[in-house]
From TrEMBL:
Lineage of the species this protein comes from: Bacteria, Pseudomonadati, Bacteroidota, Flavobacteriia, Flavobacteriales
Protein name as catalogued: MazG-like protein
Amino acid sequence: MDQNNFDGIIKRSLAIREKYHGLERQHHGTEWTLEEDALAYLTDAGLVGRDIMSHQKRWLKKDSAVELEHKLGENIWWLIVLADRTGIDIKEALDQFLTKTEKLF
């Protein structure tokens, strides 16, 4: 993977989300709403917390290192999806955040 190609990562992320939309239509008759996507993201973010606790030996969980890596990637994927669904340019949002925060220091 070309790790310097954020545009490609965004494109792949949105293509995967479209495939999930197809499964949602197949199983439920409709795609998940934006709110359902947000809830799924929050659930995965919570799992990152548990996996970090396990990484620090504060929460006993088998195979948490593998899951932590997966969940970190999945959380970035969800943020790309949520930005797209709300009409926010994730690259611009990240750049603005970094610029603003850098100026604080």
